[in-house]
Amino acid sequence: MKRMGMIFRAKANKALDRAEDPRETLDYSYQKQLELLQKVRRGVADVATSRKRLELQLNQLQGQSAKLEDQGRKALALGREDLAREALTRRSALQQQVTDLETQHQTLQGEEEKLTLAAQRLQAKVDAFRTKKETIKATYTAAQAQTRIGEAFSGISEEMGDVGLAIQRAEDRTAQLQARAGAIDELMASGALDDPSGMAKDDITAELDRLSGGSDVELELQRMKAELSGGPSAGKQALESGQGGEGQPAPQQDQPRFDKQ
Q1: Is residue 138 a part of any domain in this protein?
Q2: DSSP conformation class of 157
Q3: Per-residue pLDDT tens for 97-144?
Q4: How many domains does the chain have?
Q5: Between vectors from CA 52 to CA 50 and to CA 53, what angle results, nearest 5°?
Q6: Distance between CA atoms of 2 and 152, rounded to whole angstroms?
Q7: What is the pTM of this model?
Q8: Which residue range forms the structural domain that includes residue 72?
Q9: How many whole angstroms separate alpha carbon 44 and alpha carbon 46?
Q10: Are residues 208 and 105 located together in one domain of the fold?
Q11: Which of 166, 164, 146, 167 is nearest to 155 (CA)?
């Protein structure tokens, strides 16, 4: 099972390598970086909004604290020490809230500065990545075009390979037809395919041709024997007697006639 899993992963990795386009991968990475940069910017905006809200609350509390202090002063001037004490007590409570809000404001301000700096750095990285991405894409496109041109010239590309196979099949078929035509020409020249009537000879015609050829051989053999025994004149007389003279015609076999169809 472990071996099968390794084979499956290897084949899947090979298929992914064939399907992967580096330009698409770079564009996807750049898109993800832009999304991250947008999230950081939204975080900066959220922190700035919170800081601004705290500043408004601080201004309100500080205004109320100043008002209570003024009221305490007036009450004390009128001899109302009790009212002056109450106003100062309320002012003290507000002052504690102002202190807490100022602490939160400083914290948010620090976070805002950190996020702003991070956003600026991330923006610089995204810009640099975009420049590098476009450079790599242009280089890859040029290399891909150069490779395709080289494959086309060398005939090792898939398309040119199909063309080469088609040409090879056409050449093989042409050579086969040429060989067949040459063989037919040789057979016709040797008489093996001669048929004046346009039909192949039957068995009877072939047998008659064989007998006729054999008779000519016998006559020639008799002539040569007569020349050896009695001289040329005897050979000629033997040949004429074999062919049939005026007083003694040579026997001839009746040959059947076959009308041409």
Answers
A1: yes
A2: S
A3: 888 888 988 998 898 899 999 999 999 999 999 999 999 989 988 888
A4: 2
A5: 65
A6: 42
A7: 0.47
A8: 2-158
A9: 5
A10: no
A11: 164
